[in-house]
Amino acid sequence: MNPRQIEGSRYPAPAKLNLFLHVIGRRADGYHLLETVFRFLDHGDEIDIQSRSDGRIRLLSPLPGVPPESDLCWRAAHLLRARTGSRLGADIRLIKRLPLGGGLGGGSSDAATVLLALNRLWRLDLTRAELLPLGLELGADVPVFLFGRSAFAEGIGERLTPWTPAPAVYVVLTPPVHVSTPAIFSNPGLTRDTPSIKIAALFDGIGHNDLEPIASALHPEIAESLAWLGTRGDARMTGSGGCVFAAFPDRDQAVSVFDARPGHMSGFVAEGIDQHPLFDHAD
Asked: Is 177 in contact with 221 (CB distance < 8 Å)?
């Protein structure tokens, strides 16, 4: 090991699903008010992080077409160092498995994993409550990965209440489209008046994704995946798209459905998990 690389390992950055996503209004500053349930999956990206003693922060696997200053991993490391005054650095290598623009929270999860890993590697000992505002600065979906539990989310996604959905194994289809979240939220056809719900209503399994009709109209591949998976389960789009999913009670049934998909459809099978793998990296 390079003597300037003092400690490190490979860290998981799990995917998330929005089991439903309701747009209930809009703030004066333009941000949309949401209600959703986030759930993690036992599938996602990985990040190899080596702490450096010389203070340099390097991206060893930059995403094509994404400048370093726009990369969420790079931004997370620099934000954490700026706010804590740490003199350490890091080598960051992203092992990317989740599709860009897929609604699985890949970039947000990557950023949260960088914060959690460096919180330990740099021996900062920040609490979860101290990390959460940093996550929100990076993006509305980052806080739930720092919160570390499946959750009912309100506001712009930052007001989180622990919530444990029923056990499930998910078939996730990944159409080959990159959905622009700003384009979906700015579409004039988007409704923003879904009635607010109470947590107790989650027992009834209600919900839908208000962004789904817009994304399906813009990307026929999403509509096709929803139609096919919808003949086998309650198929929904996650986040702002373009991945779609359906829940099944066990892995055998999920694998059977996944194996029956048309040959041009890609995706994966994953189990829902209700605690982030790095939960113990912040108190």
From this structure: yes
Question: Dihedral of CA 51/55/56/62: which sign?
Answer: positive
Q: How far apart are CA 76 and CA 116, in angstroms?
A: 10
What CA–CA distance (Å, rounded) separates 150 from 131? 17
Closest CA to 109 of 27, 51, 45: 45
pLDDT at 220: 96
Distance in angstroms (rounded) separating the CA atoms of residues 43 and 102: 14
Please report which helix (H) or strand (E) contains residue 58, including its range.
Answer: strand 57-59
CA distance 16 to 112: 12
Amino acid at 227: A
Indicate which residue of 16, 45, 91, 110 is catalytic: 16
Q: Shortest CA distance to 152 belongs to which of 202, 208, 85?
A: 202
Alpha-carbon gap, residue 130 to 277, rounded angstroms: 19
pLDDT surpasses 80 at 116: yes
This prediction's pTM: 0.92
Catalytic choice (110, 141, 193, 204): 141
Active site residue 141: yes
Over residues 211-225, the pLDDT tens digits come to 999 999 999 999 999
CA separation for the pair 193, 283 (Å, rounded): 37
Q: How far is CA 155 from its chain centroid? A: 17
Domain positions in the chain: 1-283
- Hey, what CATH class is 1-283 in? alpha beta
Cβ atoms of 241 and 17 closer than 8 Å: no
Whether the pLDDT of residue 7 is over 70: the answer is no
Query: Does residue 42 carry a catalytic annotation?
Result: no
Half-sphere exposure of 206 (CA within 13 A, CB side): 13
